[in-house]
Amino acid sequence: MNAWICFADECGQTLRPAKAATWAPRGHTPVVSVTAAGGVRVSVAGMVCYRPGERSRLIYRTMLHRGRKGEPKGFREPDFASLLDAAHQQLRAPIVLVWDGLSTHRSVKMRALVAARPWLRVYALPAYAPELNPVEKVWSAMKRGLANLPARTAGALLEAVKNRLKRMQYRQNLIDGYFAGTGLSPPAPTRP
Fold this sequence. Notes:
Shape: globular
Number of helices: 6
Order of helices and strands: EEEHEHHEHHH
Largest sheet: 5 strands, mixed
Distance between the termini: 23 Å
């Protein structure tokens, strides 16, 4: 079949950064002021894609939620379908997709969107098994990189999230390491 195996997941980041240890002069506790006002949120849907003999890929899409009434707070079925179509176009091969049991993934609308794509096969991860999804490790690294970051605006937060993901996107060994960290068989080495 010569398909790519792709793992998918979603996460979100708000203006309130995670706390992390940092350096400061003795006796001067570092203070990071944040606004954290409103319901600003950056949602990210991502896929890590593997195929023996090929360079591993990280493909993602972001969505900015500014807290306005009626604005979607996260990815919906058409957004996931758009991500899958973009991945298929970039990978130029069939996709075997593995994702969690999020209600959006199991909806009637999503099942119809999947059925309309003959190049796509979908499998669900077991319930409560995030350790089997390498994308969870991508989110963890991204959030560690955003720790103590005082983003004051929605635009600054979105830019920081994209920056952290783009840094990972071009580091194939890192993406391969996330796959190996799941305990699944690592992909075969790439061609020279």
